[in-house]
Write a structure and sequence with these properties.
Length: 313
C-alpha cells in the first residue's frame, strides 16, 4: 500500500470545539452543539490561545524592516511608523528638483500602484508618499511632489503593507545600505531615560521599547543623523482569533492535539465536570499534549562550556 502523499491535515474551529466537548462526554459523537455551548467554547478557546502568547512561539517569529528617519528618535508601531515585512529598494538615476512628481529611477521592478515609497532627499531626510503610476521600467510617478531636491544615487525604498501590530520584539540589528549588519544594544526604559540628551544625532547604537495596549513606543539612541541606516527587527506576531466555524488555527499541525485537550480541560468547569473521576486523567492528557507542542516550539541553539576563570574547576 502507498502512503497518501498528503501533509496538509488541519482542523477548523468548530471541529476543535466539537472534539473538546465530546471528550468531556457532554455530547455524543456527532451531536449538534447548542448555540450557547458553542459560543461559550469559542470564548474559552480564544482566551486560551491569547494566554499562550507569551510562550516562545518560534513559528510566529518574523523579520521586519523599520525605516529610520533623520532627527526622529521615537517611533510608534501600530500607528504611522514606516515598517514592513517585505520591501524593495532602488536608487534615483538622475537629479530631481523640488516639486518633481515623476522620478527617474534605476528600476521600477517590483513596484505597484499605491505602494508606500520613501525617497532620500539631499537634506538627509526620507520623504514618504505613495505611488500614483509606473510609466515604465525606469520611472515612477508619486502622489506628493518632492519638498526638496534629491540627487542621482539617492536611495529609494518601497513596500505594500505596513507592519501588523507586533506582540514582542526579540532582537534589533542596524543595517546600512551596503548592506552590513550590526547588532543593537537593548536599553531598559530606565536606562534610556538616563541618557543625557535624547536628541544627539549620530549613528544609532541602542534601542528601547515598551509594550502597551495599543501603540508600541520604540526609541533609538542616538537620534539618526541621516537615513543611511535601517533597522531589522525580529518580532513575534500576535496569534489570530477564532472568529467563525471554518477558521483554521493560527498554529502548526503539531498544536492540534494541545488545542483540543486543553480546551476540553477548560470546558470541564462550565460543564460541571471538574469533579468527575476522569478529570485528573483529562488534566494529565492536556498537560502532556501541551508539553509535546512546546517541545517543538523552540529554536535550536548551541551550548558552550568553558573552564572556570580561576582555573579550579
Amino acid at each position: 500500500m502507498a502512503t497518501s502523499g498528503v501533509i496538509t491535515y488541519n482542523d477548523t474551529a468548530i471541529q476543535i470545539v466539537q472534539d473538546a466537548i465530546e471528550a468531556l462526554g457532554v455530547y455524543g459523537i456527532g451531536d449538534q452543539l447548542s448555540d450557547a455551548d458553542k459560543s461559550s467554547a469559542f470564548r474559552h478557546l480564544n482566551r486560551m490561545v491569547k494566554a499562550w502568547q507569551p510562550y516562545m512561539h518560534w513559528w510566529k517569529e518574523i523579520e521586519v524592516v523599520l525605516f529610520l528617519q533623520k532627527g526622529e528618535y521615537l517611533y510608534y508601531f501600530g500607528s504611522t511608523v514606516h515598517a514592513s515585512i517585505a520591501y524593495g529598494s532602488t536608487t534615483l538615476s538622475a537629479d530631481e528638483a523640488a516639486a518633481q512628481t515623476v522620478l527617474s529611477i534605476t528600476s521600477s521592478s517590483g513596484m505597484s500602484i499605491d505602494d508606500y515609497i520613501g525617497i532620500e532627499l539631499d537634506t538627509g531626510y526620507r520623504e514618504w508618499t505613495t505611488i500614483k503610476s509606473i510609466p515604465d521600467s525606469t520611472s515612477v510617478e508619486i502622489n506628493s511632489a518632492l519638498s526638496s531636491a534629491a540627487s542621482e544615487g539617492n536611495s529609494i525604498f518601497y513596500y505594500t503593507t505596513k507592519l501588523p501590530f507586533p506582540f514582542d520584539i526579540k532582537q534589533v540589528i542596524r543595517r546600512d545600505l551596503t548592506p552590513i549588519d550590526v547588532p543593537m544594544n537593548f536599553l531598559s526604559t530606565q536606562e534610556y531615560l538616563n541618557q543625557p540628551n535624547k536628541e544627539d544625532e549620530a549613528i544609532p547604537v541602542s534601542y528601547s521599547y515598551r509594550r502597551q495596549l495599543n501603540d508600541i513606543p520604540f526609541w533609538v539612541w542616538p537620534t539618526p543623523v541621516d537615513v543611511k541606516h535601517n533597522l531589522i527587527l525580529k518580532i513575534t506576531r500576535k496569534i489570530e482569533d477564532f472568529v467563525s466555524n471554518p477558521n483554521t488555527p493560527d498554529f502548526p499541525q503539531e498544536w492540534l492535539e494541545a488545542l483540543v485537550w486543553n480546551l476540553a480541560l477548560r470546558m470541564a468547569f462550565p460543564f460541571r465536570k471538574a469533579n468527575d473521576q476522569s478529570f485528573q486523567e483529562l488534566k494529565g492528557i492536556a498537560e502532556q499534549t501541551l508539553q509535546l507542542a512546546l517541545a517543538f516550539d523552540s529554536e535550536p541553539g548551541s551550548i558552550y562550556f568553558q573552564p572556570d576563570a580561576i582555573g579550579r574547576y
